[in-house]
């Protein structure tokens, strides 16, 4: 099963404060453990929301762009990992080992697979998805 682990933003990350040398060293060691275990597929830190934007859609599907920064820091994401593990419990165990320190928070969410979509994923849509994924892998 594939899981996305979100690192929640805090005042430091939203202020654009970069990690210390020790924090980077600790995070690199953690990432190396994920890679050595064969579970890490991707992971990165994210710039603060002041560098970002949100696109919202109204009832007529008209998009509106809202430039950052965004007020609710606790709702923002500062980084992520994509991991492939055998269970939710294993994902939780990996998250528990992350070197985030006091106040750090990780949200874990399972990534849907084709099987989750049932009959709504028609053969035509499945084929189109396969073509796109093939292009992405090159």
From TrEMBL:
Coiled coil: none annotated. Pfam families: YCII. InterPro entries: Dimeric_a/b-barrel, YCII. Residues 1-112 form the YCII-related domain. It comes from the Bacteria. Belongs to the YciI family. This is YCII-related domain-containing protein. It comes from Saccharomonospora cyanea NA-134.
């Amino acid at each position: 099963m594939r899981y996305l682990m979100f690192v929640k933003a805090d005042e430091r990350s939203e202020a654009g404060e970069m990690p210390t040398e020790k924090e980077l060293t600790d995070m690199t060691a953690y990432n190396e453990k994920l890679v050595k275990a064969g579970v890490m597929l991707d992971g990165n830190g994210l710039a603060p929301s002041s560098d970002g934007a949100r696109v919202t859609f109204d009832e007529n599907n008209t998009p509106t762009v809202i430039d950052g920064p965004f007020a609710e820091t606790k709702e923002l994401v500062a980084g992520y990992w994509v991991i492939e593990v055998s269970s939710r419990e294993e994902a939780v165990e990996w998250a528990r080992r992350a070197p985030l320190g006091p106040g750090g928070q990780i949200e874990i969410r399972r990534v849907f697979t084709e099987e989750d979509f049932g009959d709504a994923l028609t053969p035509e849509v499945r084929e189109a998805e396969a073509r796109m994924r093939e292009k992405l892998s090159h």
